[in-house]
Amino acid sequence: TTTLRPTTTTMAPTTTLPTLPRRVVIVGDSTAHSLAMNLPGGIGDWFSVGDGSLDGCSVYSDGAAVSSRPFRRGFDGCSGWEQRWSRSAERLQADVALVVIGAWDVFDVQLGEQLLVFATPEADARFVAGVQQGIDALVAVGTQVALLEIPCMRPQDVRGQGVPPLPERGDDVRVAHLNALLRGVAAANPGTTTFVAGPAQYCTDEAIATSLSHRWDGVHAYKTGAKLTFEAIAAALLTIEVPPR
């Protein structure tokens, strides 16, 4: 069976129990889209999930991600991404926005004549400012924010993918660095934003991490992978306190 079973039924004490199903909008890049499109059976008992993702977009509207492969992807088609997030949240009357990014954030960035090298203070500041911009837009429409931990990725060469396997995505050190930044952003927004740990297996179990039934290209979730993720995060999403509407 593929029915969702949260890994824990223990709920942190809250002033009120959540109204079920909790309304969640998934925003972010194509990894957000794949998660929203492969929801496990039974999830409707817990969550009403909407898709507010933007393929190829993270939290930027300029510059280009640059890989050593070589490969580059510009963000100029992502203008107004934060308003699109907030409009999706508003349309769905979302209690929580699950932010799923990372696949386009592990790269160096070309900004005009300037190359922002990954993990430099300038690159970190750009990422953090972008995430904060997204949080501010979501909070403005009354939505709480959950930043999903970026999983270790194992990009593979498979038929039908629009982006080749890029080495930066398979770099667990880069992923860990971004997650540290996301934790910092969540800590700086304690009333509105929560960092939510995803399934550990993508970093600890190579059989699962490379399984094409979990992620069809080692990056984007498929049915089994979406179930694994939602089992890992369901309890955390349900314990987030949301303001009354």
Key phrases:
245 residues, 4-stranded antiparallel β-sheet, alpha/beta, single chain
Structure description:
The protein is an alpha/beta fold. Helices cover 33% and strands 17% of the residues. The strands form two sheets. The protein has a five-stranded parallel beta sheet, with helices on both faces. Strands 4-3-6-7 form a four-stranded antiparallel beta sheet, with no helix packed on it. The longest helix has 19 residues. The N and C termini lie far apart (35 Å). About 3% of the residues have low confidence.
List the SSEs and their pairings.
Layout (H helix, E strand, L loop, with lengths): L21 E7 L1 H8 L9 E5 L12 E4 L3 E4 L6 H11 L4 E5 L7 E4 L2 E3 L4 H19 L4 E5 L23 H17 L4 E4 L4 H4 L1 H4 L13 H17 L6
Parallel strand pairs: 1-2, 1-5, 5-8, 8-9
Antiparallel strand pairs: 3-4, 3-6, 6-7
- The assigned structural class equals alpha/beta
Largest sheet: 5 strands, parallel
Helix content: 25-40%
Task: Report how far apart the termini are.
Answer: 35 Å
Low-confidence stretches: 9-15
Gyration radius from CA atoms, angstroms: 17 Å
Q: Give the amount of beta strand, in percent.
A: 15-25%
Mean pLDDT, nearest integer?
94
Q: Numbering strands along the chain, what is their spatial order in the largest sheet?
A: 2-1-5-8-9
Shape by Cα distribution: globular
Q: What string gives the helices and strands in order?
A: EHEEEHEEEHEHEHHH
Our count of helices gives 7
Tell me the number of strands.
Answer: 9
